[in-house]
Every structure is written in structure tokens, then in C-alpha cells.
Amino acid sequence: MHLSTPNSEVVSGSCLCGGIQYEITGQPMKRILCHCDNCRKVSGSCFTANSFLTPSQLHIKTGESLIQSYKDTKVASGNVLNRRFCRVCGSPVYITSSAHEGTIVVPSGTLDGEEARTWKPEEEFFCKSRREYLPALEGTKRLVTH
Ligand SMILES: [Zn+2]
Ligand SMILES: [Zn+2]
Asked: Which UniProt keywords apply (predicted)?
């Protein structure tokens, strides 16, 4: 029988080049897909898939010096997003918002191992920009804007 509680679980992740390695402790506050224009641009895909965490849950193990940031000032909400990425390979690493200091956002695509495969969103943001070819997902709450 395994005795660890969900909040003591540690999952790890890394950028494409492997220069940045991180660990997340405990469960995310929320798991979301975002269909907004900015998330499409930054990912090069049609949405991002993000975990919302408290800052203390994320621990950058290696590669802190490789992290570069881009201040995204053209956000629909009017907030400024600080998008951190690896300056070697370009992978997104984490995002903070000027309006939500207690939240840090980590893209689930950089998770490694079993956690990456079983990650599932609970909510979808900006569904007014949702791409038509995407099938409906079961169990997500769809928000038109957010
Ligand atoms: Zn990298
Ligand atoms: Zn977005």
C-alpha cells in the first residue's frame, strides 16, 4: 500500500534541450486549455495546455540562467503576462501575471513521464477562439472568454 498523499507527489519536467529541469510538488490548483490568440502564437499550435500552481510548488532544478522572459502586453484581459522560455531551445517554461501574484502557470507539454500522459484539463478558456476541427472534450467547463 502506498502512503503518499496527493500533495506530496513530485512530478518533473524539462525544456526541449534539457537545459532547464524543474519539479512540481503537489497537485495543480487548476488544469486548463487556453484557446486565445496569444496562446496560439506562443505555442505555434491551436491552444496551450497549462497547470495553475502556487509559486512555491515550482522548483527550477537546473538551468535558471537559461530562462529568458517576454512581457506579453497584448493580453485580452489587459494584464501583463511575463512569459518565460528557454533561450537555447525556445520551449515555454512558466508564466506569471501582473494581476495574480499568487499564481504561476506551467505548460503541461514540458512535463516528463507518466504525469504528462495522464494530464487532463478541467476548463477551457477563450472558447470563442476555439478551432472548429477540435472535437468536444468530455468533462471540461467551456468558458467563452476568460
Ligand atoms: Zn531548452
Ligand atoms: Zn491564452
From this structure: Lyase, Metal-binding, Zinc
CB 31 within 8 Å of CB 121: yes
**Domains parsed from the chain with CATH numbers:** 6-142 (2.170.150.70)
CB of 110 closer than 8 Å to CB of 14: yes
Q: How far apart are CA 12 and CA 25, in angstroms?
A: 9
**Which cell is 122 given?**
478541467
pTM of the model: 0.90
Distance 124 CA to ligand 2 centre (A): 10
Ligand nearest the Cα of residue 43 is: 2
Instruction: Give the separation between CA 50 and CA 38, rounded to whole angstroms.
Output: 14
Mean pLDDT of 78-95: 96
